[in-house]
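Posted in: Structural Biology > Protein-Ligand Complexes

Title: Requesting predicted complex, iron/sulfur cluster in pocket

I'd be grateful if someone could produce the 3D structure tokens for the following input. Sequence and ligand are given below.
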Amino acid sequence: MSGIYIHIPFCKQACHYCDFHFSTSMRKKDEMVLALAKEIVVRKNEFENETVETIYFGGGTPSVLSNDEINFLISEVYKNYKVAENPEITLEANPDDLSSERIFELSKSPINRLSIGIQSFYEEDLKLMNRAHNSAEAKKCLEEAIKYFDNISLDLIYGIPGLSDEMWKKNIETALNFGIPHISSYALTVEPKTALSKLIQTGKIAAPQDEVASNHFMILVETLQKNGFIHYELSNFGKENYFSKNNSAYWLGKKYIGIGPSAHSYDGEKRGWNIANNSLYLKAIQNDELPIETEILTISDRYNEYIMTGLRTIWGVSLEKIENEFGLEYLNYLKKQSQKFLNDDLLSIENNILKPTPKGKFLTDGIASDLFYLNLED
Ligand code: SF4
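-- Reply #1 --
Done. Output follows.
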């Protein structure tokens, strides 16, 4: 199973918390679409023996592209790659781009999964985060989307300053009332150099509190599990048969090609990342160069990635796999490092699979970093 990720590096406005790569100027949009198509063609040899099972438009805001532009890029994938019969084709979209007409048009395109950036149904949260949509648009677009799409995911952010537990419960309830089969939910985090970080430093916005976020996370897990969602990755919840195939493939270490500025790629041995600058990306592609840097993963890198993704997902970390793929030294190291978390009931081992306990889930990233193999040479 392999995937193609296409990064659309444009947004209508900058959300205060965001540190992804995007530009708010659409001036180079046409040029960019042609460059993305060219990169799709140029890199086809990398997938000579692969079947593409997922295509994912991420960003940025992919819904700023017209349907013709999206269809053009999908057709370039079909022309140049072997594509599975029923691939999952996801479009990340923002509510302000999803008018009824647009949703109807999209339903006639090869896109078969929408991932909608709702984030919150409260006006004050959307304003605080500087989202381009309002609460009415968030609800309206979902009402329309469920008429035409069965596979929909929505994003919700918790831990927003001012968002009480009661308000958070209501946000989840509102989402559930639409019957959406997949929810991705993240804590609001303060990344360096973002507008949010400046607003907090200057006292204009209160800093998010870990304790509040941790409570919101517990409410989220409990409510969604009660409503038939499977908590299959730390930030992702899906009904049976509605897990994101694209993201699951990343977490299971499958190959993917990342097209566009800042997009990452993985071929099983090395990771690559395209330059995160629209002008330099365009210039390179127009000069027949691939603006990509690559790094061959060491055994420790691969072990660390497996620990991180294994602990974050429902599949856990297989101790057998650690021994077979990385060797006894890594297995013994992992056992030694996990002991204190096992004693504190933050990790458990069942059927030779290491996983966080319900108590340890919210601390997963911190626990994983304590299990990383840092100082040994390969
Ligand atoms: S729309 Fe998404 S990518 Fe664009 S600024 Fe907001 S969070 Fe970032």
